Prior knowledge:
- This protein has 333 residues and is an alpha/beta fold.
- The chain has one domain: Rossmann fold (3-Layer(aba) Sandwich), CATH 3.40.50.
- The protein has ten helices and 17 strands.
- It has helices at residues 15-27, 40-49, 65-71, 87-92, 94-114, 134-152, 175-184, 204-217, 233-240, 321-330, and strands at 6-10, 32-37, 55-59, 77-80, 119-125, 159-165, 167-168, 189-192, 198-202, 223-226, 230-232, 245-248, 260-262, 270-272, 276-279, 302-303, 310-311.
- It has a ten-stranded mixed β-sheet with strand order 3-2-1-4-5-6-10-15-14-16, sandwiched between helices.
- The protein is globular.
- 44% of the residues are buried.
- Bound molecules: NADP nicotinamide-adenine-dinucleotide phosphate.
- The site of NADP nicotinamide-adenine-dinucleotide phosphate has 30 residues, from helix 1, helix 5, strand 5 and strand 7.
Amino acid sequence: MFNNQSVLITGGTGSFGKLYAKTILERYNPKRIVIFSRDELKQFEMQQEFNHPCMRYFIGDVRDKDRLSQAMRGIDYVIHAAAMKQVPASEYNPMECIKTNIHGAENVIHAALDNNVEKVIALSTDKAANPINLYGATKLASDKLFVAANNMAGGHKTRFAAVRYGNVAGSRGSVVPFFKKMIEEGADHLPITHEDMTRFWISLQDGVDFVLKNFDRMKGGEIFVPKIPSVRIVDLAKSVAPDLEQKIVGIRPGEKLHEIMCPADDSHLTIEFDDHFVLSPTITFRSSDNDFTENKLGETGKPVEQGFEYNSGSNNHFLTISEILDFHEKADV
Ligand SMILES: NC(=O)c1ccc[n+]([C@@H]2O[C@H](COP(=O)([O-])OP(=O)(O)OC[C@H]3O[C@@H](n4cnc5c(N)ncnc54)[C@H](OP(=O)(O)O)[C@@H]3O)[C@@H](O)[C@H]2O)c1
């Protein structure tokens, strides 16, 4: 798919973008990989590590459509990973979150259409399903923009899809590195928001591989959701410190007890495949195939039962404490 092709990653210096670039370099012979992000220091540091001749570094903000359009010249595939993603920061600075996550998405779409990019995949999050915080709400708006963009393509070949997944084990600011830091600093207990809290759990490499695969699967208009395990927060704490006391501190504003990836209200749109779900569009596309039960790889799925919800609290796969330890060792967390 990516041999002799040009790929642009918005947010290419982030955790996802870096591993995505590394994985493409290891598995394919791309013509160009363009890293698009704002901070010159992060790009400088990435250049020390990723200096393959096909690598290009563009300083730019997804809020700036002209710059995005310039960076997308001759690009075949775009992965849109740039985002403002911290829930509290988004609540305190709502317009900043809207500008990056919604206006940024719109700019990516227009730049991709202007440059006749072949396929675009935007990263979404479980927080976009039935959102209760602004971060999730902006990601839902972004998902809607990318889905509807397939109707804007007109004579262009560009197709857009989104990938929605849950917590990335060990990502910046997430719970396991937070617990580990507390332990290093000699904490006498670990704070637990709620004893019943659960989360979907995915490794960064599995997230990258899922996105890669969906470039082959997509027709345009899908929201792809991987089938992944859930974890209980109390088990995560026990996995890093089996003997340390846990204290319940209460759910923080903007947090849910359980996360959802496919809401019950969307069950009439949800199609189940062997290892993933597809949320098919609420709208009809004028110029393309509207049947999402078969993908471009020929894999077939079945509509789920009315009312089905893919929820981290009722998932049929929970990791045990020893499985969490194995998972973290494999994922280098
Ligand atoms: N981590 C998770 O647990 C998780 C779970 C589900 C979904 N996701 C989604 O996955 C995507 C990638 O997440 P990540 O964990 O890789 O995030 P990350 O490590 O925080 O990286 C974010 C990247 O986006 C860039 N960026 C931020 N604002 C930008 C802007 N306005 N213009 C251009 N670039 C900008 C950042 O670089 P600069 O600051 O230098 O611009 C950085 O390269 C996000 O869309 C996120 O919503 C993440």
